[in-house]
């Protein structure tokens, strides 16, 4: 029974591929920034309606929740795809390149939404062969704090449809199309944004003895903050602190009154995360004091550690091996990137895995968040088919 259903899902994924490819290309060509996905949402609603899948819109304005029902009552399982793009100017000659200047689907959210829709179409077509309910989430604002996942949860997106498990996948240009990767337990880091203002007294660059130089103090603060990772974090605790932006706005012979620093702090240990925040405040303010200036520190708390449910992930690894062949399922290393799906994983058993998108001979290997990112579109077949297969394996065959 399961073998015939697997073949049916694979056939449906192949059959739907041209349509899902066009859907992905349309979304890619018309990207929208976080919490502004109005046209993307309208487009996906049209496709859901054409398929006959019931849905409600308006979740965090642009989000969508669709619900499919199987043959008999049973568990609820949710599939999540994000919709937002990034403020990046696309460097591509494809026919489906972004028409919205300075905005690009450089993180594959067009792929995620298309695959969730494709999985929903497959599950709708075979709804007499599985049990329970499936919730499809099309989520806004993954790329912007506080994260659309958290806001959808706050609005009660699961209050009347409590999922026994939630699945999500993410493009991965380090893996060839046709392969997927999993990791149980802690997989991705927490992320916090750092905003530090160093205030002193500016003046003429030729007379530094008459100023309280915030630039030199800011430099000392940047160096001192490296103690967070090298001396204060336990050696076995992944920790990253990076300053990515410095604004001084002086000139060659003018020392400004203030310097602004912006950066990120990431770790995989929540108690250490909170202690590190205290260290950051202390290092900034005390270093500034020692340099005769003042420092104001704002830490915007972002996404938590993404912790995949161990048992669910192991079941998904086994099911993925059945569907794709064990040779196409890989164990992933931990990553210090972050993902707002972590909010969902905190509340419900979840599995966030990677979808290979690379082509042959080094094609489609540009990293996410780059102007040249694109995918081998054959990955869409794997993406939607595997999602549907993992779903029926969790819910049970009718």
Q: What does this 3D model show about the protein?
A:
The structure is a single chain. The chain has 398 residues and is α/β, with parallel strands linked by helices. It has 2 domains: 2-188 and 304-395, 3-Layer(aba) Sandwich (Aminopeptidase); 192-301, Alpha-Beta Plaits, CATH 3.30.70.360. It has 10 helices and 16 strands. It has helices at residues 2-29, 38-51, 109-125, 148-154, 214-225, 227-232, 270-290, 310-324, 341-347, 379-395, and strands spanning 54-58, 61-69, 76-82, 133-139, 165-176, 180-182, 185-188, 192-199, 203-204, 239-247, 254-255, 258-267, 294-301, 306-308, 329-331, 350-358. The strands form 4 sheets. Strands 1-2-4-3-5-16-6-15 form an 8-stranded mixed β-sheet, sandwiched between helices. The chain has a 4-stranded antiparallel β-sheet with strand order 10-12-8-13. Strands 7-14 form a two-stranded antiparallel ribbon. Helix 3 crosses helix 10. The chain is elongated. It starts with a helix and ends with a helix.
């Amino acid at each position: 029974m399961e073998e015939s259903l697997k073949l049916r899902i694979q056939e449906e994924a192949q059959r739907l591929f041209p349509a899902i490819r066009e859907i992905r290309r349309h979304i890619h060509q018309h990207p929208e920034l976080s919490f502004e996905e109005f046209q993307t949402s309208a487009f996906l609603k049209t496709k859901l309606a054409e398929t006959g899948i019931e849905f409600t819109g308006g979740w965090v304005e642009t989000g969508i929740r669709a619900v499919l029902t199987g043959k008999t009552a049973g568990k609820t399982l949710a599939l999540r795809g994000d919709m937002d793009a990034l403020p990046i100017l696309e460097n591509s000659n494809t026919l489906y390149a972004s028409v919205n200047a300075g905005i690009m689907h450089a993180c594959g959210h067009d792929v995620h939404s298309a695959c969730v829709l494709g999985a929903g179409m497959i599950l709708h077509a075979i709804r007499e062969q599985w049990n329970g309910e499936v919730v499809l989430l099309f989520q806004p604002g993954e790329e912007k704090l506080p994260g659309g996942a958290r806001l959808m949860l706050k609005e009660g997106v699961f209050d009347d449809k409590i999922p026994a498990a939630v699945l999500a996948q993410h493009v991965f240009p380090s893996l060839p199309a046709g392969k997927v990767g999993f990791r149980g337990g802690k997989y991705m880091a927490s992320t916090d944004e750092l905003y530090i203002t160093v205030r002193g007294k500016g003046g003429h660059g030729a007379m530094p003895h008459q100023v309280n130089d915030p630039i030199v103090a800011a430099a000392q603060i940047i160096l001192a903050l490296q103690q967070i990772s090298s001396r204060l974090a336990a050696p076995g605790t992944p920790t990253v602190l990076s300053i990515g932006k410095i604004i001084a706005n002086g000139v060659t012979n003018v020392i400004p009154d203030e310097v602004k620093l912006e950066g990120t702090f990431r770790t995989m240990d929540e108690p250490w995360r909170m202690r590190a925040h205290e260290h950051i405040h202390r290092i900034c303010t005390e270093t500034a004091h020692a340099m005769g200036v003042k420092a104001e520190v704002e830490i915007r708390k972002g996404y938590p550690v993404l912790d995949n449910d161990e048992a669910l992930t192991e079941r998904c690894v086994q099911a993925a091996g059945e569907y794709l062949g064990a040779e196409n399922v890989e164990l992933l290393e931990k990553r210090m990137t972050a993902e707002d799906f972590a909010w969902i994983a905190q509340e419900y058993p979840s599995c966030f895995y990677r979808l290979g998108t690379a082509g042959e001979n080094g094609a489609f290997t540009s990293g996410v968040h780059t102007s040249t990112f694109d995918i081998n579109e054959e990955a869409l077949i794997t993406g939607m088919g595997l999602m549907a297969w993992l779903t029926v394996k969790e819910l049970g065959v009718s």
